[in-house]
Design a protein that fits this description.
By secondary structure, this protein is of the alpha/beta class. It folds into two domains: about 50 residues, no CATH class; about 130 residues, Sugar-phosphate isomerase, RpiB/LacA/LacB (Ribose 5-phosphate Isomerase B, Chain: A), CATH 3.40.1400.10. Helix content is about 40%, strand content about 15%. It has a five-stranded parallel beta sheet with strand order 6-5-7-9-8, with helices on both faces. A two-stranded parallel ribbon has the order 1-3. The chain has a two-stranded parallel sheet with strand order 2-4. Helix 6 links the parallel strand 8 and strand 9. The mean pLDDT is about 85.
């Protein structure tokens, strides 16, 4: 059974006077947890590679979604929250909460961490073009963020790439186009087979680079 170690877990252990964190072979240490350990000068009690494989569920399992946006995507985010709720999905809004200027990496990271922690099955991010937030999210191990600009790219991102974050551009797409993209995303399963072999290579890269 996989155990996800979060930033909160690190803080609780530190407050109890612990200086070491035990990480087993199949445990998942979130990026924010590792940063917090570095800040607090805590160490991992058992060395070795941390397993970084979080499968994306099939369409039938899509029940919870994290959504985030910078100031350019704020209005679209508010529209999509209702759209997703009307479809029966539980929506977690990680911000931003208004149209004041802000930084897209903060919200791309917040969405990704909700996925890594297991709180949601997938995420949606909106910024001006859909490019910068995807770049940010894809820095995080196990996250596969896809910038989609039509229904075909949404289908391909899910069917071929098993993407778990959909990124859209609020200044490049209209409201109805984004809704159509989301609908295609939600109805598409990962096809597996030869595509899984390629995703396994991505996971191998992550496991080689993300070491304790």
């Amino acid at each position: 059974m996989k155990n996800v170690i979060t930033e909160r877990d690190i803080l609780e252990s530190y407050q109890k006077g612990k200086k070491e964190i035990v990480v087993r072979q199949n445990d998942i240490l979130t990026p924010s947890a590792k940063d917090k350990m570095n800040d607090l000068k805590m160490v991992i009690a058992k060395s070795g590679n941390i397993k970084l494989d979080i499968p994306t569920p099939t369409k039938s399992a899509f029940k919870k979604v994290a959504i985030g946006a910078d100031h350019t995507g704020f209005e679209l985010k508010e529209i999509l929250k209702k759209f997703l709720s009307d479809k029966g999905l539980a929506v977690i809004d990680v911000g931003t909460l208004n149209k004041e200027s802000c930084d897209y990496p903060d919200f791309a990271l917040a969405v990704a961490e909700k996925i890594i922690s297991g709180e949601v099955e997938f995420g949606i991010i909106a910024d001006a073009t859909g490019i910068p937030s995807a770049i940010t999210a894809n820095k995080i191990p196990t996250i596969r963020a896809a910038t989609c600009y039509n229904e075909f790219t949404a289908w391909s991102a899910r069917s071929h790439n098993n993407a778990n974050v959909l990124v859209v551009g609020a200044k490049t797409l209209g409201e109805e186009a984004v809704k159509a993209i989301i609908n295609k995303w939600l109805e598409t399963d990962f096809s597996g087979e030869r595509h899984q072999k390629r995703l396994d290579k991505i996971t191998d890269i992550e496991n080689k680079l993300f070491k304790t």
